[in-house]
Inverse folding.
């Protein structure tokens, strides 16, 4: 699905003007090169460390009103159109904070962010803190997750695996285990790691269920997935 251009938003105008003024003042070229190399060159960096970046973000957002979904969409898409990764992090943090302001029709925007300049540093937060809350608020979106788990884009499939990370007792256990088995033969590290991670996280809620699942299905899972799933059990 093609995402249209960001909608007009006075709040987005204010936030982006402040953001693109404030963030560059803290740019550090040497750190930027280190960060870009560490993240495998997925995007250029300004070189702002997380604690400083979050402090700058508070300055950017000082006095701004709560957004609606249109504002969230505009801010996220406009940040993602900027090259430096710190702007993407700002968008992720903003969406995490205001996920409850977004409805079911925000899911295509989340998918766009997941599939654009994709790497674990943004995808995992979007999965657990944006897509997860959207699905929790609208059970109808589980059908979308059933499609995502079979998607050829590994980051979309990883999102489907991880979207229930924070569900705890509300976890759809049958769906969780089915998703793990659906991707158990995947050769990519990020999928195998995600299988182990979502099982390990659910193991904090129902360790017996995870142990039983691994005992029954462990031969179909990669050694990495099994090791991660049982790490704390």
């Amino acid at each position: 699905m093609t995402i249209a251009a960001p909608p007009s938003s006075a709040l987005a105008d204010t936030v982006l003007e402040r953001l693109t003024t404030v963030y560059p003042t803290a740019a550090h070229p040497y750190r930027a090169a280190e960060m870009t190399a560490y993240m495998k060159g997925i995007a250029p960096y300004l070189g702002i460390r997380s604690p400083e970046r979050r402090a700058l973000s508070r300055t950017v957002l000082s006095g701004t009103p709560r957004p609606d979904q249109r504002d969230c969409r505009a801010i996220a898409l406009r940040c993602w159109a900027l090259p430096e990764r710190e702007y993407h992090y700002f968008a992720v943090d903003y969406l995490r904070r205001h996920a409850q302001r977004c409805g079911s029709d925000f899911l295509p925007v989340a998918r766009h962010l997941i599939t654009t300049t994709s790497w674990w540093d943004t995808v995992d937060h979007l999965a657990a803190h944006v897509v997860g809350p959207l699905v929790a608020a609208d059970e109808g979106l589980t059908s979308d997750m059933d499609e995502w788990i079979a998607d050829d884009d590994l980051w979309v499939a990883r999102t489907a695996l991880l979207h229930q990370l924070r569900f705890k007792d509300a976890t759809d256990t049958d769906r969780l285990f089915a998703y793990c088995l659906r991707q158990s033969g995947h050769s990519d590290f990020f999928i195998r790691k995600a299988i182990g991670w979502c099982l390990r996280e659910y193991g904090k809620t129902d360790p017996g269920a995870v142990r039983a699942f691994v005992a029954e299905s462990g031969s179909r899972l990669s050694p990495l997935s099994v090791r991660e799933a049982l790490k704390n059990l």
